[in-house]
Predict the 3D structure of the following.
Amino acid sequence: MSIFRLAIPSPLRAQFDYLPPADLTPEELSRVKPGCRVRVPFGRREVTGYVLAIEEKTEVPANKIRAALQILDDFPLMSTQMIEICLWAANYYHHPIGEVMASAFPATLRSGKAHKPLGAPGWRLSTQGKGLPEGALARSPKQAQALAALQKTAQIDTVTLTGEGISSTVMRSLLTKDLVEQCTLKPPTRKVKSHSGLTLNTEQSIAVTAIQATLGGFHCHLLEGVTGSGKTEVYLQLIARALEQNMQILVLIPEIGLTPQTSRRFEERFQANIINLHSGLSEGERYKGWEAARDGSAHIVIGTRSSVFAPLDKLGLIIVDEEHDSSYKQQDGFRYSARDIAVKRAQQAQCPVLLGSATPSLESIYNVQLGRYHHHLLAQRAGGAQLPKVATIDIRKQALTAGFSAALLDAVADTLNRGKQVLLFLNRRGFAPTLQCHDCGWLAECRNCDARLTVHRRQGILRCHHCTASVKMPGACPDCHGRALLTSGLGTQQADEFLRAHFPGVPLHRVDSDSMRAKDAMSNLVTQMQNADPCILLGTQMLTKGHHFPGVNLVAIIDADAALFSTDFRGEERMAQLLTQVAGRAGREGEPGKVLLQTHYPDHPTLQSILTKTYADHARSILADRLALGMPPASSMALIRTDAKDAATGELFLERLREQSAANLPASTRLIGPLPAPMQRRAGLFRSQLLLMANSRQDAQLAARTLVTSADKLPARGLKWTIDIDPLDGM
Ligand code: ADP
Ligand code: ZN
Ligand code: ZN
């Protein structure tokens, strides 16, 4: 008796057994393979499950196990290799396999719709139709004509048939006679060609030669290249080699805004089928991209985080651009790291994975030190451009207008006068404008979170950036009824208004998640900026992600202090990455650029390091400190978090979890907490956490498994708990 082992999307960390549908013939059963979808009853619902395995059992307790309703696919849509990756990820991140598998499929297939191959609808002869002699069906000339046409070419698309005067009614009649069948005509395969690239400089050339030599085997490479050093050219030339060997290439990028820019560079270089996969696409577009990856017609897939699950069976090279970027870590639900899964996929596909960044993560630098990753350095900017000069502006006791010192405004004016572009960076975090009463000190706070509301003056509202609650801007203080309400801090909107007034006639482009929401906003801006007319770019974190703005000459960080006093142990690493990346937008072509940092703490050691050392040196000294303290990447972490209606419920749960599991944990592990999460109250719920630290990944895995098993058994009334492996925040 055959039993299907299924992955079913549900919060339960389990696999589920089902009998085949009652009416399934042995021949149909023999076609069911791991990777096929089936419809099954689940509780009171009907859901899509994914076959993980088919097991033969001599005895099945028929009353205990339900039968599947329908087999949805007559061949597997997911390869056994991809199933293995999903099983690995489910196991490593302690997430239900059903949800992991589901996340690897596009929505239409998840919902149980039929799998449709790409291509135009068409017709071909059936076995019976092929047996007909020429000149058959003489009594219906149209049908005879259709048959003759099909006898000449194996298959014809519907458009051509209509063009020859053969209607769909004619084809339907042939279909009822079993003489023809419907089919899909594959689009003609494009001949892949690469246009020749730039002449590589010595550093690039050494990197390409070394990495290219590892095609066909599993190797991890870190490409550490300063901003503007031509990492993309290295990617392109390696991709050309992989394409020659008939392989598929996966390119991960941190942000949707970068896809048009990146794709354009790829389209210019390669005559090949280049697919984008990201959350900004419509369902239909996503399905097409996914299917092109699966059926092998896609040569290059460029995508954000989730495309690390793209079904590519001829994977020959994986590139993770800006590998340090925190957007590769999913921060809710299935909390995976796309960078780490990319390495796993490369291992399984036996191909190289290339992690590229101007500011590599300490994890990757550590892996280089341990000899696990090959290291390639691009220390010079390509094309002769020089790295920018960095200087601070000490703003202590200086009069500031809307956050700008006179010195900074002079530098901006000077740059614009020289016909250059200016980029002003505002670190939104901890810098958002809040509303305060000048009479009594009242602060506008969110009623759901431990957070202040942010002023959105143009819309006349106060908004919480943690739970999105919003209220109308009050006319007077709710406590003392005073009318002197001050906006403290500086937001992009306020800076925007000030700059427009101060530099009339100078175009100002704002780059933040509000202004860049429209689908093509970022790519339009990038195009606009290429004309190199003087203008001001004002933006947040979004500006740090690898954009190439050749006309930008001055970069200023309006408040460098905002990032200096983070309590998170990764704070200094993030600060160094952020400042280096922002600075890296300056002077990428032509004249050397300039970077100015406004600060109250010009002597702060972190700022001093940034001024006097390269990121490469600075990062290695931060890493040495971390290793000395036994912090990641020297150790591994996991976080168990609870969300509960009150603080005590969560802490009690974590306390009991700790008591029950502490004795069973590996010796190298320790638990810290329960403690309130860094932002304890969020969206009306209280958050607590228990931190697990271990000396090795293996021990962290064992300990996490023990904790999850215990937590699954504990009563969890009034709370929700989650586990985050290798968390990026939480300390
Ligand atoms: P990165 O990704 O490292 O920040 P890019 O790949 O965007 O850098 O390259 C920066 C600029 O240098 C681009 O304008 C690119 O065309 C140019 N460039 C890259 N490699 C070379 C080369 N070998 N010769 C001349 N120009 C180059
Ligand atoms: Zn809130
Ligand atoms: Zn007041």
